[in-house]
Amino acid sequence: MPSNLIIRGRCFDWGQRTYLMGILNVTPDSFSDGGEFNTTSAALVQAQALVAAGADIIDVGGQSTRPGAKQITLAEELDRVLSVLQVLRPEISVPISVDTTRAAVAKASVEAGADIINDISGGTFDSEMLPTVAELSVPIILMHIRGTPQTMQQQTDYQDLLGEISSFLARQVQAATTAGIDLDKIIIDPGIGFAKNYEQNLEIFRGLRSLTTLNCPILVGASRKSFIGRILNQPDPKARVWGTAAACCTAIFNGADILRVHDVQEMHDVSLVADALLRQPIQHDC
Ligand SMILES: Nc1nc2c(c(=O)[nH]1)N=C(COP(=O)(O)OP(=O)(O)O)CN2
Ligand SMILES: Nc1ccc(C(=O)O)cc1
């Protein structure tokens, strides 16, 4: 796998430590924090708090992708994301990713200062996404999903879950490089909770290491998700922090490079200790 990636002057030195992506949902309806950060002033305060807590990347999302979430218009998504980027970019020095499946949002976001595109469809929802990202020359996160957030939970029949996730991601990595995206700018993600049932989410954690054969950094987004709620019998997503910690630790143990989380302060402690126990850092120039 590529040894490192420089984004906005910051070095992501893969394997050396776990990197944290702090979630900033500027939506009214996200499953755990909808409506909390969807004004520009609240978004800025939260972004600064995430950075102070140890976030390496801030992930801005204008569209909830929870099961059954309503699809907003392009104009609405552009308005939500761009108004926040305008306020964030001058104040935040860490890389900013934008969680979108639309090429037009990706392009306008990078023009407004975003550094990474996070596409939960792995470049499959919008045929212009991969060529657009290639043209913009920014890194992309390719996530596995089946169907759309509206239909995905009816598409959970797999013969070989990890094998199918792996071949989807391999195909999309190939499509991305064919479109002109550098291989070292591609991050893969198995898509916890996207077209997966409870048992399948657990199976992904156990088999995560099999995805390392794709030779790309791996991102895992388990934060506060419903499989944790089911294990804990905890309906309140905000009360799933310890459960998230266990999932993050397991992901690190099984090869994750980036964790996408809401509770950055807590997961920073988790990743510092897990990294000290599990990784053998070597000195690099990067
Ligand atoms: N790459 C990647 N992106 C994601 C992932 C994920 O696992 N991987 N999970 C999400 C769901 O979490 P969020 O808190 O943003 O909820 P919402 O979809 O309701 O906004 C949204 N975006
Ligand atoms: N976008 C998503 C939000 C939440 C979940 C989940 O709780 O499993 C899955 C996807």
From TrEMBL:
Keywords: Folate biosynthesis, Magnesium, Metal-binding, Transferase. It catalyses: (7,8-dihydropterin-6-yl)methyl diphosphate + 4-aminobenzoate = 7,8-dihydropteroate + diphosphate. Pathway: Cofactor biosynthesis; tetrahydrofolate biosynthesis; 7,8-dihydrofolate from 2-amino-4-hydroxy-6-hydroxymethyl-7,8-dihydropteridine diphosphate and 4-aminobenzoate: step 1/2. Its cofactor is Mg(2+). Residues 18-272 form the Pterin-binding domain. The keyword Transferase applies. One of its GO terms (molecular function) is metal ion binding. It is an enzyme of class 2 (transferase). Its EC number is 2.5.1.15. Coiled coil: none annotated. Pfam families: Pterin_bind. GO terms for biological process: folic acid biosynthetic process; tetrahydrofolate biosynthetic process. Belongs to the DHPS family. Catalyzes the condensation of para-aminobenzoate (pABA) with 6-hydroxymethyl-7,8-dihydropterin diphosphate (DHPt-PP) to form 7,8-dihydropteroate (H2Pte), the immediate precursor of folate derivatives. This is Dihydropteroate synthase.
